[in-house]
């Protein structure tokens, strides 16, 4: 479980740093419109959100209450991989084994 936590911490910090850096130095709307004007930009966005949907299926399966399911869906849509890394990080501290991390709470 220690390796999972290390990877989740590194991923969370990298994503957090890059989001802050991008917000401070880039123009989201101007650069986003350029990116979405390119077919590979569109393909990358579809690829990204298909990945988020697959991660959300796992989160939906694990979370049994509606509120956490809704909160994680919003976080995935807004912050993307940061939410994924954060979810894995949080769950790695709750779980005792890798099976607990992957399987639905009882």
Describe the structure.
The protein has helices spanning 2-25, 28-36, 39-62, 66-79, 81-94, 98-102. It has 106 residues and is mainly alpha-helical. It has one domain (2-102). Helix 1 runs antiparallel to helix 5 (81-94) and helix 4 crosses helix 5. The model has no long low-confidence stretch (mean pLDDT 93).
- Return the average pLDDT rounded to an integer: 93
Number of helices: 6
Low-confidence stretches: none
Roughly what percent helix? over 70%
Structural class comes to: mainly alpha
Beta fraction: under 5%
Total strand segments? 0
What's the story with the biggest beta sheet?
A: none
Q: What radius of gyration results from the CA coordinates? A: 16 Å
User: H/E series, N to C?
Assistant: HHHHHH
| End-to-end distance | 20 Å
Number of domains: 1
Principal-axis shape equals globular
List the topology elements.
Layout: H1 2-25, H2 28-36, H3 39-62, H4 66-79, H5 81-94, H6 98-102
Helix pairs in contact: 1-5, 3-4, 4-5
């Amino acid at each position: 479980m220690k390796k999972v936590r290390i990877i989740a911490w590194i991923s969370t910090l990298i994503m957090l740093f890059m989001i802050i850096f991008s917000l401070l130095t880039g123009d989201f709307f101007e650069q986003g419109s350029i990116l979405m004007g390119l077919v590979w930009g569109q393909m990358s966005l579809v690829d990204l959100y298909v990945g988020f949907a697959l991660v959300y299926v796992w989160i939906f399966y694990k979370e049994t209450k509606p509120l956490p399911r809704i909160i994680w869906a919003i976080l995935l849509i807004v912050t993307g991989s940061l939410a994924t890394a954060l979810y894995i990080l949080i769950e790695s501290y709750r779980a005792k084994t890798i099976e607990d991390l992957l399987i639905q709470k009882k």
